[in-house]
Hints:
Elements: H1 11-24, H2 28-41, H3 45-56, H4 71-77
Helix pairs in contact: 1-2
Amino acid sequence: MLKNVTITLEEETLRWARIKAAEKGTSVSKLVGQILEQQRTGRPPSYWKAYEEWKKIKPIPGVDASKRMSREEVHERGR
Length: 79
C-alpha cells in the first residue's frame, strides 16, 4: 500500500530532482520513492522489473538441465 508523505527540500535540490525526474519521464514523487526503495533493498527498480520478467519465462520444451554436461566435462572436452 502506498502512502503520501511531504518532504522539504532546498530550492537547488528540488531543481535537480525535477530535472532528473523529467529525464526519466517520471514525477519527483516517484523518483524519490525509487531512490528510497533502492536504498532500502540495495537494488534499483530495473532489477525488480527484470526479475518479474524472468519469472514469467517458461522452460523450453525438450531442454532438460539434468542432461547438460558437467563443468568438468566441459573443460575436459576443450583439451
